[in-house]
Amino acid sequence: MAKKQYFGIKYPFTNISVEKYELDLNNSEHEAITSELLHLIFTPKGQRLRKPNFGTNLIKFIFETNNSDTWIGVKQEIQTSVSEWLPNVALNDVNVMVDESGTEINVRLDYSIKEGSDAYDYSIVVQI
């Protein structure tokens, strides 16, 4: 019987798998990189010991006016952090959108994962 390979801890943290590990694990490299991307985006700078610059300063946009200047800041913050901390991820596009109520910002990340000479395209939508 072949052993199943895991690729790090799944983010956001859950424990719903049938393997009964303390935390769920990623089943593929794509899942692992997506978890790393989410972890980076939602970690405020200064929260990680020995890596004070890891994460983003998205928390500063919480009480900002929901306008194009804020959207540009969110986009730049994500692009800067991803380019610094995830060298195997290339952001192809970052689209900032507002929900119907006008109170929440959603960000669609179109990204590529470099694996050797190949690149695979993916996208996720996160709520900031």
Give the key terms.
single chain; 128 residues; alpha+beta; Nuclear Transport Factor 2, Chain: A; 3-stranded antiparallel sheet; 2 helices; 25% helix
Question: Can you tell me about this structure?
Answer:
This protein has a three-stranded antiparallel beta sheet. With 128 residues, it is α+β, with helices and mostly antiparallel strands. A hairpin with a 2-residue loop joins strand 2 and strand 3. 16% of the residues are buried.
**Could you tell me the strand content as a percent range?**
15-25%
| Structural domain count | 1
What is the CATH topology assignment? Nuclear Transport Factor 2, Chain: A
Count of strand segments: 3
Please summarize the sheet with the most strands. Answer: 3 strands, antiparallel
Global geometry: globular
Going by helix content, strand content and strand pairing, the class is alpha+beta
What's the assembly state of these chains? single chain
CATH class descriptor name? Alpha Beta
Amount of helix: 25-40%
Strand order of the largest sheet: 1-2-3
Q: Distance between the terminal alpha carbons, to the nearest Å?
A: 43 Å
CATH architecture: Roll
Rg for CA atoms? 16 Å
Low-confidence sequence ranges: none
Total number of helices: 2
